Amino acid sequence: MNRDDEIFTAALELPVAERAGFLDRVCTGDAALRARVAALLAGHDAAGGFLEGSPVDRPAALPEEKPGDQIGRYTIVRKIGEGGCGVVYLADQHEPVRRRVALKVIKLGMDTRNVIARFEAERQALALMEHPGIARVFDAGATATGRPFFVMEFVDGAPITKFCDEHSLSMAARLELFARVCLALQHAHQKGIIHRDLKPSNILVALQEGVAAPKVIDFGIAKATEGRLTEHTLVTGVEQFIGTPAYMSPEQAEVRDRDIDTRSDVYSLGVLLYELLTGRPPYDPQSLVRAGIEEIRRIIREVDPPRPSTRVATLADADRATVARLRRAAPMRLTSALRGDLDWIVMRCLEKDRDRRYGTAKELADDINRHLWLEPVLARPPHPLYRLKKFVARNRLACASAAAVAAALIVGTVVSLREAGDARRRQEQAEALLTFMLGDFRTELKKLGRLSLLDAVGEQAMTYFAALESRDLTDTALIRQAKALAQIGETRIDEARYADADAAFATAYSRATALTTRHPRDPDMLFERAQVEYWTGFIARRRGDFSTARQWLTRYRDSTIALVALEGAKPRAQAELSYSTHNLAVLDLDRGDLADARDGFLAERATLGKMLAAEPGDTELGYRLADSASWLGNIAEIDGKYAEAIDRYREMSERLAALIDREPAVARWKSRLADSQVLAGFVLAIAGRRPEAAAQFAAARDAQSALVTADAKNQQWLVNALNCRLRAAELMLGDNDLAAAAPIVADARARLEVLVAAEPAARVFTGRLATAWMLEARVRFARARADTLAAAERAIGIGEQLIGENRADTWVLWDFAQAQLLAGRVNPAAGLPAAAMAHWNRVIAVLGPRAATSNDWRFLDPLAQAYVLAGNPDAARPLVGRLRSFGYHPVDPLAASTLEIAR
Amino acid sequence: MGASELTLYLQQIERGDQAAASELLGLVYDELRKLAAAKLAHESAAHTFQPTALVHEVWLRLGGDQQPAWANRAHFFAAAAESMRRILIENARRKRAVRHGGEFARVSASATGFDVPSPAGNDDELLLVNEAIDGLAAHDPRKADLVKQKYFVGLTLEEAADVLGISHRTAKRDWAYARAWLFNEVKRLRGE
Fold it and tell me: Do B70 and A784 count as a contact with CB atoms less than 8 A apart?
């Protein structure tokens, strides 16, 4: 038998034409053998999809109805479509009336009697619907094979999204069409009928005498078939069901969905509007389907999708161009067209809590029409006043000037409401808005971590300013705009919206350079330009583009030197100098230049000390000293000086705790205190002080959860909190506490998937997603699950991508190496020593050069392990020696035993 | 029941106790059936099951997540594949019997929960495949095991290879051979 096997396998690898000759050669003298193998080869070629499916989850296709077949009193004419749960036919009815109908046969194994009973229960109500936007439902019954079918008015149209794209309908035309769909829904809702399965394929648009006529189909069917989120909707035919979870409201995603009302349809309408405007639904259907059922439920219930404008802004250029072309819009204008009213209208439909959605489809239609008529929409309170109330409640002291703030907010609101107003009025209002934005309000908001409030009013101003040319503006206008735009950009950075932020700074830079060109000796102009240089560099660094970052930060540093030359020892110049040295030091650290980085931070520290001596009560300076301590701690840590690192991080904690004592309401102090605890936590862990480490993580976690709860929009805090939880889970895994670690990892992973989908360019999100996958792999490994490798490969994939883009920081490399080592450990169990070796060699290739110039334990530990596993303990020995000399204790027990081999 | 029982069986099998293998099969089979029936009672009639998910759930219910070593899983999966096969085959035979009685094609939910409204041809094919697998097992049990894991439990080829402790490459070769062989055998059994 073995011989059959070998010959068969060898022959399969040959081109078909060469197989016969091959068999002749190897089977000489054994005709029976040749016949057996030839039969196998023939079987192989003829087998098609044989056994490729499972007998359970993909039952063989039912025999389909053919033209001419009779179903009840209907004659099939032809098949016109195949949807999620059924096949749709064009059919002829002969009695009691002769007419063309659409006949939908349900595919799934449903209890036909119950389906029909549920349909009958709603039949009276369905019969009452009489609206040009609604397709009539005539009849329901069972086919000869027992499957339920429904008979409806035949609509010869295309799904609404397809129709809009095929006719390249403009935004306005789409909105107008959509509003008519809403009114059709309103009619149904008034008759007590909820659709429950609104999606593009259920809203068909036909051209009637040149006018687009939308019609909603399938009323009553979702209820009768209890269409809802089950494993089945995912398992059978991913392609067919793809729309269903993407359009499902949070309450429908619940396991028990009895409690559905008209606002569930409003939610689905919101999803549809989102797709009509941006070209894709709020949650990517493909990722939803991949996420698995529980995860889908969670996403739909808990995760807020990006706003339409953000979604469009984060598209790849080519995709955005397509979206714009299909809407006859300029790609550059797309985001600003969506921002404001349309964002608010859509997001109001998509509220998780249905009490906060539009109460009826008509209210939604009315708001759309208001937008089209340039009237204020109801969806907006960008809730400035509502938010302001909360803000006052949170911190009375900070709101001494609350009345002035409220007045300014109202002015801000007016700006956006008067698009049709005359130009001078608008400019005055915009200037008034700027005065407000540049005032004390901003400082207070920033401390509270609620800068997003600024953005809500600032977006309108930004849209307005971006359209103006620098050369047409006065100096005063240029300065104010540069400042305002820079602040809008800062807000967006806080929210990790880097592309949006970059756009704001690009405009700001054009204003600032116009000013320095007009007034080369004026320190104020230079100062403004320096600010923009810094922020632009900052964004580049955040995005992992080190060379652009270095270029901008060097410009910044040069500007601050010039500033000191212009105005000497003034506090402003000193401060700027400290900032610019700080930022170059950070960049040096990123580049692995520890000595220069350390000198840079020590110099910054000295400058800060001088400044603090002049202003002893300055909390910002206190904060910056804490920050400097954190950098020095980091340098000590990667230099193998753990005791010093712990001291530095402790100093950081103490300085921040002192700031919190002084200003308990400032969210940023709390956030940074949590950061210091995470930093200290991991060094304590590798220094072998595990109980102290766990205590640090617990404290950090509580603080971060409170912050995220207080400002859910702040993605940076969310990602910080997730990072803290993931590293804590890593320690738990080190203690073999699977039960505690696994749910943390799963939850963090799901949230990160969403963040990454919304901000694919942000390195912090992507990197932490890899962390989550790596830890997921470790959980699976500990549970001996067969899909361990798959999880490890996800982490590896992201790691490779970041490494390839030169965007991998030390934690990314650490996670990547962990995942590789694990993948290698799994492979020999599957009998693949070569594959395992490839994983270990990859670790050696990536970390080897880095460990040659760095003492970072995140390089040394995995590299030494890779050498040991690859059978080269001699190469591991010096690395282990270095780690031991630092007093390093591996967190992962598997690492500990591996490194022990190289002692 | 639970972790201790599973651990006990797995240890006995490791020591070469064949009786324990059959005990484990009984345990897994009962658990799968119960689980499927329970699901059917609580979920809508539209529900069918994914064998992979079901087997995984049984593994967890029996305390499999507390099993440390890789090797043990192979025994469990062998039992699971065999159980799944029996449940499917029983289901197909029962449905065919009802149809032969001239009844309306649909039957009510069964105790197994695998009530898939598949036409007669499909069940017949399932029974033929089952018979062919027995033939394959007689001369090449390793390939037959692979087919059971992939076809009845619904594992991917790579997962099945991991469970059976063979390399992915071997699994790929075995699968090509087994599929061709079974295809010919099913044709032969059909009398073609």
Answer: yes
Contacts of B44 in chain A (CB under 8 A): 226, 228, 230
On whether residue A524 sits in a domain, the answer given is: no
Same domain, A218 and A115: no
- Helix orientation angle between A498-518 and A452-466, rounded to the nearest 10 degrees: 60
Q: What pLDDT was estimated at residue A681?
A: 94
| Domains: count for chain A | 4
Hey, of B56, B70, B103, B153, which one would you mutate to test binding to chain A, going by the most A CBs within 10 A of its CB? B70
Stronger pLDDT, A752 or B15, i.e. the higher one: A752
Query: Are A182 and A301 in the same domain?
Result: yes
Residue in chain A nearest B147 by alpha carbon: A51
* CB interface of A with B, residues 55-94, below 8 Å: 55-57, 59-60, 62-63
- With beta carbons less than 8 A apart as the criterion, state whether A712 and A755 touch: no
Residues in contact with A662: Cβ distance below 8 Å, sequence separation at least 6, in sequence order: A619
Give the model's confidence band at B97: pLDDT under 50 very low, under 70 low, under 90 confident, else very high: low
Report ipTM (2 d.p.): 0.76
**How far apart (Å, rounded) are the C-alpha atoms in residues A50 and A638?**
57
- Whether residues A147 and A165 share a domain: the answer is no
Q: Cβ contact (<8 Å) for B46 and A8?
A: no
pLDDT, tens digit, for every residue of A37-59? Answer: 999 998 888 877 788 766 654 33
Q: Give the whole-angstrom CA distance, residue A708 versus residue A747.
A: 15
| Residues A224 and A286 occupy one common structural domain | yes
Set of chain A residues whose Cβ sits within 8 Å of the Cβ of B184 = 39-40, 42-43
DSSP A210: T
A143, A168: one domain: no
Q: Which domain holds residue A283?
A: 158-372
Contacts of B163 in chain A (CB under 8 A): 786
Full domain range(s) for residue B37: 3-189
Rounded Cα distance between A469 and A98, Å, is: 67
Which tens digits make up the pLDDT trace of A610-662?
A: 888 888 778 888 888 998 899 999 999 989 999 999 999 999 999 999 999 98
